[in-house]
Amino acid sequence: MDSMEEIYMKHGKMIYGFLLTRTRGPGLAEELTQETFYQAVKHIGGYKGESSISTWLCAIAKNLWRDYLRRQKDHVPLDEAEQVSVESAESRAFCLWDNVQILKLVHGLEDPMREVMYLRLVGNLTFGQIGEIMGRSENWARVTYYRGKERVVKEAGKL
Questions:
Q1: Helix H or strand E encompassing 96
Q2: What is the rounded CA–CA span in Å between residue 110 and residue 75?
Q3: Domain check: are 109 and 71 in the same one?
Q4: CA nearest neighbour of 39 among 16, 11, 22, 63
Q5: Whether the Cβ atoms of residue 130 and residue 33 lie closer than 8 Å to each other
Q6: The pLDDT value given to residue 8
Q7: What is the mean pLDDT of residues 31-44?
Q8: From CA 16, how far away is CA 106, in angstroms rounded?
Q9: Diameter of the chain by CA atoms?
Q10: Closest C-alpha among 111, 3, 19 to residue 60
Q11: Which residue range is the domain that position 120 belongs to?
């Protein structure tokens, strides 16, 4: 297994993006990202290699986010928060447009479409990994992503 520093360098941005889609706040996303990697170091012995390291880290991050919500007095219900989003051809194509504007359009998508878009574009995850993280099928992740991409392209055309 890679050293934790290498794992952080490889997956830190993706975990931060994953948490940012849920928290909608950079400060909390950063705090939970740090806690995710702390917990990963603390429980590295529990990683059995049955899933990719990125999927394992996302599961830790998701559990930390749930724990955070449970501790808050004034928060959205957990079910609503659950629905709150590769260097690939898709991400390269999006990079040709104004990144800030595209991210605004992606951020405007409803959940879970937004989260799927972030996991694919920012997190470099496969549709299989996204499906696993979201507790859905690979096909669901693929369809959700392409519907989100169509919406972003349509909205970008209006600009």
A1: helix 89-96
A2: 18
A3: no
A4: 63
A5: no
A6: 85
A7: 89
A8: 16
A9: 51
A10: 19
A11: 97-158
Q: What SS3 state is found at 125? A: coil
Residues 106 and 72 in one domain: no
pLDDT at 157 over 90: no
CATH assignment of the domain containing 127: 1.10.10.10
Domain membership of residue 90 (yes or no) is no
The pLDDT tens digits of the residues spanning 96-137 come to: 445 567 777 888 888 889 888 888 877 778 888 889 888 999
Euclidean distance between CA atoms 43 and 102, whole angstroms: 37
pTM of the model: 0.52
Contact 102, 152 (CB under 8 A): yes
Closest Cα partner for 69 from 21, 15, 22, 13?
22
Arithmetic mean of pLDDT over the chain: 78
Are 27 and 56 contacting, i.e. CB atoms less than 8 angstroms apart? no
At 82 the pLDDT is 43
